[in-house]
Design goal:
heterodimer, A: mainly alpha, B: mainly alpha, 60% helix
C-alpha cells in the first residue's frame, strides 16, 4: 500500500542541536549534507582518511543520519533487483507478433547456414 | 547436457524484451536487442552446460549487448550537471537543495516512511510492489541521469566508463550519481511505501 505525503520536518531536538552545532560542523565538512553525500560517494570510490573520519564523527553525534548508510546499501540492492528481474507485464509493451516472426526467421536462417555456426 | 531449441529460446523472448525495454526505453532498439541476444545464444548453444538456468544465461548475454549498445551510442559529454534536464514532476535539478537547508541540516525527517529500507534485502527484493515503485521512481529521473545511474548500479560499470556512455564528464558523474540516489530515495519516501 502507498500513501503520497511529503515528509514532516525533523524532530525539535534535531533542529535545536543543529542550530547550535552547524557553525562547527559545516566548516569541518561534517554537516548532514556532507554526510549524505559521502554515504553515496563511498559506493563509487574509496573515501580519503579524512572523509572516513567525517563519516565516523558525524555518525557519533547525529542519530538522524545514522541509518543512512544502510539505507543506501539497500537501495542499491533494490535497484539491482529491478534491473535484473523484469517481467513482461512490467514494461506495459509486448513484443509484437511481427518482431517475434522476424526473430524466429532469423534463428531458422542461422540454423540453415552451411557451417551451422 | 541441456538441449536448446528455437522454441525454448522463443519462450524467453517476452521476458528479454521486458528487460531490454526496462533498460533502453526504446521499443525498436529493445526488439533488435532481443533478436541479437537470441541469435548469439543460438550460435553458442553448444557452450550452454546447464549449470545456470537458461533465463540467467540469456540475461547475461543481453547484459553485454546492452553495454555494447550504450558504448556504441555514447553521447557527447557535458560538464555541467545543471544541463541534465529537470524531471517533469518538478523534483528540480538538485534534490539536495530540497532536502537540506543552507547550513547543511535536514529540512525534512529523513527517516520518515523509510521503514521500507529497514527490511532485510532478500525480503525486499521479493516484494513486487516495492520493486514496481523503485522502477517508477527511476523512470522519473531525467534520461541522462537514469542512464548513468543504471549503468553504474545495475551493470556495475566503472564510473568513468558509465560517464562516457551517458555523455557526462567523469568529474560531474559523482555529483550526478549522488543526485540520482537522493532523488530516488526522496521519491520512495514521498510516496511512503508501506507493507
Amino acid at each position: 500500500m502507498t500513501t503520497s505525503s511529503p515528509p514532516p520536518p525533523p524532530r525539535l531536538s534535531y533542529r535545536l542541536m543543529h542550530a547550535v552545532m552547524w557553525p562547527l560542523l559545516t566548516p569541518l565538512r561534517m554537516s548532514c549534507r556532507h554526510f549524505a553525500q559521502l554515504c553515496s560517494e563511498r559506493l563509487d570510490r574509496p573515501l580519503t582518511p579524512y572523509e572516513r573520519l567525517c563519516l565516523r564523527m558525524h555518525r557519533l553525534v547525529c542519530g538522524v543520519c545514522r541509518p543512512l548508510p544502510r539505507q543506501f546499501e539497500k537501495l542499491h540492492h533494490l535497484v539491482r533487483c529491478c534491473g535484473d528481474h523484469s517481467e513482461p507485464e512490467d514494461s506495459g509493451t509486448e513484443l509484437s507478433s511481427e518482431a517475434r516472426a522476424a526473430i524466429r526467421e532469423a534463428l531458422q536462417n542461422e540454423t540453415h547456414k552451411p557451417d551451422g555456426s | 547436457m541441456t538441449t536448446i531449441t528455437i522454441e525454448t529460446l522463443m519462450s524467453e523472448a517476452p521476458r528479454l524484451h521486458a528487460h531490454a525495454l526496462n533498460r533502453l526505453s526504446d521499443h525498436h532498439h529493445a526488439e533488435d536487442l532481443v533478436q541479437e541476444t537470441l541469435l548469439t545464444a543460438w550460435r553458442k548453444r553448444d557452450t550452454f552446460d546447464g549449470r545456470s538456468t537458461l533465463r540467467t544465461w540469456l540475461t547475461g548475454i543481453m547484459k553485454f549487448k546492452i553495454l555494447d549498445h550504450h558504448r556504441a551510442t555514447a553521447r557527447v559529454p557535458t560538464s555541467n550537471p545543471a544541463e541534465a534536464p529537470v524531471s517533469a514532476d518538478g523534483w528540480g535539478t538538485d534534490p539536495m537543495d530540497r532536502l537540506f537547508d543552507r547550513h547543511g541540516s535536514w529540512k525534512i525527517d529523513p527517516n520518515y516512511g523509510m521503514e521500507l529500507l529497514a527490511d532485510a534485502p532478500d525480503i525486499l527484493s521479493n516484494r513486487s510492489e516495492v520493486l514496481a515503485w523503485v522502477r517508477r521512481c527511476m523512470e522519473r529521473l531525467p534520461e541522462r541521469l537514469r542512464l548513468l545511474f543504471s549503468l553504474r548500479e545495475v551493470d556495475s560499470m566503472a564510473v568513468p566508463e558509465a560517464a562516457a556512455a551517458a555523455g557526462v564528464t567523469a568529474g560531474s558523474a559523482a555529483v550526478l550519481l549522488t543526485r540520482a540516489r537522493h532523488q530516488l530515495r526522496a521519491c520512495l519516501q514521498h510516496h511512503r511505501i508501506t507493507p
